[in-house]
């Protein structure tokens, strides 16, 4: 779900009142003169202002600007004598109606201004933004003066109303100023805060309209901070930036973070001064539900929002009768409600289309557009969104020609309102899809290529289902045009890179970019790490603020300090590593991949859609693209089947019969179409898509196999040394680093952990909420085989005794205090827990030894957040634990666990991960033989291949025949490069087993 078109509404309902030029003709050049200082010492100027409604023709209208901000801090209207009593003007008439449209005001209070003139003061709250304001009716020298503005501008209002030409004090006390600042200290609030807030909200609007949600998030977050510092975190009038921040997080699919903010908004909206706050919250919650894939839940919320918006509007306007737009435009609340109602109807159109009701969807969108036209508010951005939604409804109705027409109109509107931004790109892709459906291949490719150019220029991506029609069109053209086939297949690879990738891909890409930018220079690596740490700290502080549990000056101070550190770090990286940002590109082209591949190496990547997919092979001298009938849902089921086939049978010592049919079918769907290109390669880099990230590709079968003779089966690992990467960008950034680890020590290892006691677990997992967790954690028994695994690995590499921590010494404290950046290989052989396995563990965790005498088990849990704080310089991190590379969270979640991502961030060049619980003996053999081969000069990929082949070859000879089952040899997979080949590797599958085994 994209940002709503009602973000034009932000300029009105969340940022500021609409500029007077929206409904009154502007004037020529105006001259500003000094007006002295306000109560905070900010310099102010005064100039001729735009007219506002009054019952009597005014003598003059003036606007005051303070602190350099572009919005008026105050307005004054001088009326002639006889225009009415102060009491009558303060309680009724056109001016008071104008005030009530913008503010919620208390009853007038009699007071006096400096110099003794009589006045009536109304303590008000601005509906748009919730800022404290004042409105005043003052006894002026020529007649009544009507004024409104920020509380701290009262001294300037008084001077101008009384006709003073000097800013010097008269010596008379201002009772009005005392009343005005009674609710809020002049030292903490003034025109600067209002101006800064308005500026940030306007910036958020601009970024959100361009669908640049991440940058808009930061603008709204800062606006919220400005308001909370002044009004307090629990003030209901902070709900507007809070809601918009929540929606921007939701638009980025950060749904859990958004829900935290929406819950805070639920409590605040009913008490807000802005009457549009409640319907807007219902509307935004509906969009949040839509982002979460729940259109049925969104529909009743939108219906409620529409009803609440409608109560704020003239009945005739809502029901379709003609109405004078100027009357509506003069009322910001009505204008906000009109925009909100129109956008709610458009949003309802999106929901109805997704629920299979395209005709109703088109009607709803048309009703929204009609309302905007009647109110004179049909701007290009809103019109573009409405046309795009209508076009999408036509797509679902199967009317390609009409949808293409509407989408073309939408693209033209976006090209005016937000040229070269995401809305235009999305619409162009939809245009291309419909032109292709109408068999206009040339027109389709023209639209697709125009949209792709925007995406590459802005470094943004689109959902895979939006990109897939581009690939379909290119594939059809390649089949028809033999001469251009190679060029079209290269374009297909580039198009596939425009599809959005998972959070894992983005996270690992950021981590590996540091290695590429540093290219062996530790000073550059440290500078980039400082920037990434500063950004991580900022996210953590924002999460703390979003939760609303610890608001206050101290948290604000920490955020300000963190922002300063981030700015300094960014400047340092810009000077030390100008290539860093380039390595963070959202996509790379085939040429960039080809330049980093070896002569006998190929990369395979894929994009799977709802009905089919595409697979790609990139070698130094060619690119091959092929369509596959395998879709994402089928691939996910097949991955699940193969993972289940590696699970031990209940009550048995080993796994059951392996599903060779599925292993072969998955190979046929993914790599079979690429066989002609892969014929000469011996090394394969795989960049899987979606659920395929949670499967080691070495266990795929390239041909038929007998389940009873798996040692002789044609496993993919026998053909290729395999390396897995989350995406092509990761490989390019990893290979940009020309040097491996410069750490002086060969190895650091931890194993044979000591489990926590039942009492310690009970204290860590309270029985009222986490009793089941305590029971499950108590089943994490000791892993005695890991003692041999770590000891043998250390001996093979010549590690010093103090580099190995076993049993009671293998604690989290020992790991966190060790100089891990001194080791080229880090080895953790223990249990790992992923979210979903234990409900009270919110993040992935490695289990280490519980310190003797500890009150609970918390000191044994090394979380992914703590791993992020480690500083490594490791060619290889071996996570010889249970399921460190498997699916995280209930239902799969991200394909790679947060542990793998966190170790990349900490500084690993490669990870040897496990995709399921490992057998002790097999793990000891594979780890030891991998390290032996790597020490002999093999790359990490070739070393792991050799160790796995050895296990297969020895199954039924020196090892039990069951060891040919993938359960034993396949859980280990290499993620990233690890160590690259530096000498002739040991490749023979008949290599001797380590002597100690």
UniProtKB/TrEMBL annotation:
Keywords: Signal
Keyword Signal recorded: yes
Signal peptide start-end: 1-22
SUPFAM superfamilies, per database record: TPR-like
Keyword Translocase: no
Domain CHAT: 662-977
Listed InterPro entries: CHAT_dom (IPR024983), TPR-like_helical_dom_sf (IPR011990)
Protein name: CHAT domain-containing protein
Lineage, highest ranks first: Bacteria, Pseudomonadati, Pseudomonadota, Alphaproteobacteria, Acetobacterales
């Amino acid at each position: 779900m994209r940002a709503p078109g009602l973000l034009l509404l932000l300029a009105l309902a969340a940022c500021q009142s609409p500029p007077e030029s929206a409904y009154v003709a502007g004037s020529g050049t105006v001259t500003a003169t000094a007006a002295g200082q306000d109560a905070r010492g900010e310099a102010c100027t005064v100039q001729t202002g735009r007219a506002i409604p009054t019952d009597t023709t005014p003598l003059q209208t003036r606007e005051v600007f303070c602190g350099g901000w572009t919005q008026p801090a105050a307005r004054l209207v001088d009326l002639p004598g006889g225009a009415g009593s102060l009491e009558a003007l303060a309680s009724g008439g056109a001016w008071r109606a104008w005030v009530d449209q913008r503010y919620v005001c208390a009853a007038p209070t009699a007071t006096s201004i400096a110099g003794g003139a009589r006045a009536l003061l109304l303590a008000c709250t601005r509906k748009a933004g919730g800022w404290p304001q004042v409105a005043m009716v003052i006894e002026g020298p020529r007649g009544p003066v009507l004024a409104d503005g920020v509380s701290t501008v009262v001294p300037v209002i008084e001077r101008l109303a009384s006709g003073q030409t000097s800013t010097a004090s008269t010596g008379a006390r201002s009772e009005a100023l005392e009343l005005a600042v009674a609710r809020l200290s002049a030292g903490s609030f003034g025109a600067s805060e209002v101006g800064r807030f308005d500026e940030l909200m306007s910036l958020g609007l601009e970024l959100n309209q361009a669908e640049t949600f991440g940058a808009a998030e930061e603008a709204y977050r800062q606006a919220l901070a400005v308001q909370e510092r002044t009004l307090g975190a629990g003030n209901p009038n902070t709900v507007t930036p809070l809601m918009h921040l929540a929606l921007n997080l939701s638009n980025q699919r950060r749904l859990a973070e958004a829900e935290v903010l929406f819950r805070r908004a639920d409590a605040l909206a009913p008490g807000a001064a802005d009457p549009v706050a409640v319907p807007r919250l219902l509307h935004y919650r509906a969009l949040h539900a839509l982002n979460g894939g729940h259109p049925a839940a969104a529909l009743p919320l939108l219906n409620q929002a529409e009803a609440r918006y409608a109560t704020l509007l003239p009945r005739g306007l809502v029901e379709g009768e003609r109405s004078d737009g100027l009357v509506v435009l003069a009322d910001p609340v009505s204008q906000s409600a009109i925009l909100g109602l129109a956008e709610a109807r458009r949003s309802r159109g999106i929901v109805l289309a997704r629920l299979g009701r395209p005709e109703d969807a088109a009607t709803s969108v048309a009703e929204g557009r009609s309302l905007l036209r009647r109110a004179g508010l049909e701007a290009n951005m809103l019109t573009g969104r409405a046309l795009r939604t209508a076009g999408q409804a036509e797509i679902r109705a199967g009317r390609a020609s009409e949808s293409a027409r509407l989408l073309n109109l939408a693209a033209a509107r976006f090209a005016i309102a937000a040229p070269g931004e995401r809305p235009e790109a999305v619409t162009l892709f939809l245009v291309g899809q419909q032109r292709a459906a109408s068999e206009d291949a040339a027109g389709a490719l023209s639209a697709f290529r125009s949209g792709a150019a925007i995406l590459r220029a802005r470094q943004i991506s689109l959902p895979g289902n939006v990109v897939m029609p581009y690939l379909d069109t290119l594939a059809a053209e390649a089949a028809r045009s033999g001469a251009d086939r190679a060029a079209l297949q290269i374009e297909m690879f580039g198009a596939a890179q425009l599809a959005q990738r998972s959070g894992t891909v983005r996270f690992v890409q950021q981590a590996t970019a540091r290695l590429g930018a540093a290219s062996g220079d530790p000073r550059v690596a440290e500078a980039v790490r400082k920037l990434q740490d500063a950004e991580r700290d900022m996210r953590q502080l924002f999460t703390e603020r979003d939760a609303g549990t610890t608001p206050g000056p101290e948290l604000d101070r920490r955020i300000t300090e963190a922002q300063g550190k981030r700015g300094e770090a960014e400047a340092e990286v810009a000077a030390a590593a100008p290539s860093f940002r380039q390595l963070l590109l959202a996509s790379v082209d085939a040429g960039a991949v080809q330049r980093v591949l070896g002569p006998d190496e190929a990369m395979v990547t894929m994009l799977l859609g709802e009905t089919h997919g595409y697979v790609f092979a990139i070698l130094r001298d060619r690119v091959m693209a092929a369509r596959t009938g395998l879709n994402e849902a089928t691939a996910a089921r097949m991955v699940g089947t193969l993972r289940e086939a590696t699970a031990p049978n209940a009550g048995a010592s080993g796994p059951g019969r392996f599903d060779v049919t599925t292993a072969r079918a998955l190979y046929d769907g993914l790599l079979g179409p690429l066989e002609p290109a892969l014929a000469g390669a011996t090394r394969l880099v795989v960049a899987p898509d979606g659920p395929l990230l949670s499967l080691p590709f070495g266990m795929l079968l390239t041909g038929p196999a007998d389940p009873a003779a798996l040692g002789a089966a044609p496993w993919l690992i026998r053909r290729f040394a395999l390396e897995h990467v989350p995406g092509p960008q990761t490989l390019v950034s990893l290979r940009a680093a020309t040097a491996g680890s410069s750490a002086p020590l060969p190895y650091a290892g931890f194993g044979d952990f000591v489990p926590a006691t039942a009492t310690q677990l009970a204290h860590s997992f309270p029985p009222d909420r986490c009793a089941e967790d305590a029971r499950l954690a108590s089943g994490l028994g000791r892993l005695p085989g890991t003692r041999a695994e770590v000891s043998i690995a250390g001996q093979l590499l010549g590690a010093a005794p103090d580099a190995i921590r076993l049993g009671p010494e293998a604690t989290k404290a020992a790991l966190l205090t060790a100089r891990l950046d001194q080791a080229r290989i880090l080895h953790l052989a223990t249990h790992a827990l992923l979210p979903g396995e234990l409900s009270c563990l919110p993040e992935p965790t490695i289990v280490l030894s519980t310190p003797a005498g500890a009150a609970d088990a918390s000191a044994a849990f090394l979380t992914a957040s703590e791993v992020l704080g480690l500083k490594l310089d490791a060619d290889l991190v071996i996570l010889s634990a249970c399921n460190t590379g498997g699916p995280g969270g209930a239902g799969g979640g991200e394909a790679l666990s947060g542990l793998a991502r966190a170790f990349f961030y900490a500084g690993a060049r490669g990870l040897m991960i496990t995709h399921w619980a490992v057998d002790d003996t097999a793990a000891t053999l594979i780890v030891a033989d991998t390290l032996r081969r790597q020490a002999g000069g093999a790359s990490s990929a070739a070393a792991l291949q050799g160790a796995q082949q050895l296990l297969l070859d020895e199954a039924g000879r020196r090892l039990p025949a069951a060891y040919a089952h993938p359960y034993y040899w396949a859980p280990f997979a290499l993620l990233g490069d690890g160590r690259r080949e530096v000498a002739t590797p040991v490749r023979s599958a008949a290599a001797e087993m380590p002597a100690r085994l």
